[in-house]
């Protein structure tokens, strides 16, 4: 075996890529896994058997049908995409974020989002050679409308992301503030595409989808990941066909595989099951929030997502002590100064939540 020449790697791989840390997914074997906003529920056994039979019929030897016609039609119907609007599919909404960055990557172009926010907006921007501009939220994680409008006028971003609700803070931004941003992005001070990221829509039950027809510079992005299908990797973006036709040009052909397409179609036929799971998680969210808030020194922030953000006296210590009790959550306290001593925990089954709450209370003792 010949050795790899480090100087060749240096010559080929970009400086900023070599300087990056790899996206770290912690080993969760044997742990109560509450770090990744997964739905803890699987499909019921009888549906799993039916799905297995369905997947057995899929022609694995064939490429997917172009643009996944049937799945797009089903999504439009089930997700109430307004008439005249289209959807484009991605291998997770992460891929859609990458496509948006690629398509907008003119020299000097920028991507803007409130921070702390979803890290992929900044990462995808960097990969595509765009500059990312983060605009700090207020200390209570509400949108700083004036700061956003000023930053938009100054930086003229190509794309503005608004996650609704936001990750990792969990809150829904004020709809009036958001509308002001969408309108400001129509000019003349700034002309931008605004993407409302509704990854957590099943838990928020609020949406900009019905308002797509009001704004020619708006797209609404969703995913089935947090709804209970994180493993199949399917995201979608809804909006005017003129926008989506442009994005479609940078979409890798066949980006949604036949097993994902068949599984998603099946799940959408049984969407009531997923909706019921989401309703249970919303009820549990209230219970977990109350349990956490009952602990001395803990502030729990309002959440419209399937996770809770809380500030504790010592986040690193609480995280380690939870891990020692076999509970894995996310310590987000180093992500942004506004998140000092903050932890993020996914809402799960009543059993796992009880396990978490017990370990959480114990982790705060001296
Ligand atoms: C999880 C998440 C996504 C990514 O979802 P995938 O479809 O799994 O790639 C997008 N946006 C936000 C805000 C998220 O939290």
From TrEMBL:
Broad enzyme group: transferase
Domain Aminotransferase class I/classII large intervals: 31-360
Top-level taxon: Bacteria
One term of GO molecular function: histidinol-phosphate transaminase activity
Enzyme Commission identifier(s): 2.6.1.9
One Pfam family of this chain: Aminotran_1_2
Needed cofactors: pyridoxal 5'-phosphate
InterPro entries referenced in this protein's UniProt entry, alphabetically: Aminotransferase_I/II_large (IPR004839), HisP_aminotrans (IPR005861), PyrdxlP-dep_Trfase (IPR015424), PyrdxlP-dep_Trfase_major (IPR015421), PyrdxlP-dep_Trfase_small (IPR015422)
CDD domains associated with the record: AAT_like (cd00609)
Keyword annotations of the record: Amino-acid biosynthesis, Aminotransferase, Histidine biosynthesis, Pyridoxal phosphate, Transferase
Modified residues (N6-(pyridoxal phosphate)lysine): 226
Pathway: Amino-acid biosynthesis; L-histidine biosynthesis; L-histidine from 5-phospho-alpha-D-ribose 1-diphosphate: step 7/9
Gene3D superfamilies: Aspartate Aminotransferase, domain 1 (3.90.1150.10), Type I PLP-dependent aspartate aminotransferase-like (Major domain) (3.40.640.10)
Record field: catalytic activity: L-histidinol phosphate + 2-oxoglutarate = 3-(imidazol-4-yl)-2-oxopropyl phosphate + L-glutamate
Self-association and partners: Homodimer.
Family statement: Belongs to the class-II pyridoxal-phosphate-dependent aminotransferase family. Histidinol-phosphate aminotransferase subfamily.
Name of this chain's protein: Histidinol-phosphate aminotransferase
Species whose genome carries this gene: Cupriavidus laharis
Lineage summary: Bacteria, Pseudomonadati, Pseudomonadota, Betaproteobacteria, Burkholderiales
Record gene name: hisC2
């Amino acid at each position: 075996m010949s050795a790899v020449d480090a100087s060749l790697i240096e010559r080929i791989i970009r400086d900023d890529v070599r300087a990056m840390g790899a996206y770290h997914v912690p080993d969760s074997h044997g742990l109560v896994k509450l770090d990744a906003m997964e739905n803890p529920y699987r499909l019921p056994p009888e549906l799993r058997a039916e799905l297995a039979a369905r997947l057995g019929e899929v022609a694995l030897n064939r490429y997917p049908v172009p643009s996944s016609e049937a799945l797009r039609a089903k999504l439009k119907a089930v997700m109430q995409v307004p008439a005249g609007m289209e959807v484009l599919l991605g291998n997770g909404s992460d891929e859609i974020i990458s496509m948006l960055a690629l398509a907008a990557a003119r020299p000097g172009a920028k991507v803007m989002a409130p921070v702390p926010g979803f890290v992929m907006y900044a990462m995808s921007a960097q990969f595509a050679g765009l500059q990312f501009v983060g605009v700090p939220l207020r200390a209570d994680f509400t949108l700083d409308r004036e700061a956003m409008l000023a930053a938009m006028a100054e930086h003229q971003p190509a794309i503005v992301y608004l996650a609704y609700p936001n990750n990792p803070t969990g809150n829904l931004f004020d709809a009036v503030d958001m509308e002001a941003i969408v309108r400001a992005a129509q000019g003349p001070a700034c002309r931008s595409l605004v993407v409302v990221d509704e990854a957590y829509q099943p838990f928020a039950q609020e949406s900009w989808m019905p308002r797509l027809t009001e704004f020619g510079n708006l797209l609404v992005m969703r995913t089935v990941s947090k709804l209970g299908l994180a493993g199949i990797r399917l995201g979608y973006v809804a909006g005017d066909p003129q926008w989506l036709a442009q994005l479609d040009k940078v979409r890798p052909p066949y980006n949604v595989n036949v097993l994902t397409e068949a599984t998603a179609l099946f799940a959408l036929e049984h969407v009531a099951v997923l909706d019921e799971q989401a309703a249970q998680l919303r009820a549990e969210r209230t219970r977990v929030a109350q349990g956490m808030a009952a602990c001395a020194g803990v502030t729990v922030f309002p959440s419209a997502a399937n996770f809770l953000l809380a500030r504790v006296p010592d986040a690193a210590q609480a995280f380690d002590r939870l891990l020692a009790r076999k509970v894995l959550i996310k310590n987000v306290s180093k992500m942004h100064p506004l998140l000092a001593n903050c932890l993020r925990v996914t809402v799960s089954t009543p059993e796992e939540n009880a396990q978490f709450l017990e370990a959480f209370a114990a982790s705060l003792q001296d």
